[in-house]
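Researcher: I'd like a structural prediction for the single chain below. Treat it as a standalone chain; there are no partners to consider.
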Amino acid sequence: MRIMGLDYGSKTVGVALSDELLLTAQGYSIIRRDSEKKLRKTLAEIAQIVSEQDVTEIVLGYPKNMDGSEGDRCAKTREFQSLVEKRTGIPVILWDERLTTVAADRAMDEAGLRWDEKKEHVDRIAAELILRGYLDARAAKN
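Model: Treating it as a single chain, here is the predicted structure.
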């Protein structure tokens, strides 16, 4: 049993997976697409990872504004949530992702990555941070 973390963007989806004990989060992959509306391949790749990695729950970053309000990206994220749930048959939990991309960018700065290298990794790292936050909150709750 694993939990998957997703960072949904207009042209990419960062993917992270927990370990089987649900203690750690590791960046897994970045799913890329040509257009925001072309989701068939993205959903198929997510479903394949769910099947191959024994994923039982998905956590999807929810991009609220810094003041807590919900903008256009939140509506698109809820639509994506529904599509992923229909495709995989498992629950998708929305998780506040404010500042995860900033934190991912900061971590890459500290690692000394150049801008073009950062672009290759930021979505995967953001997904890892989303999942890590969820796992930490879940552990604290139990």
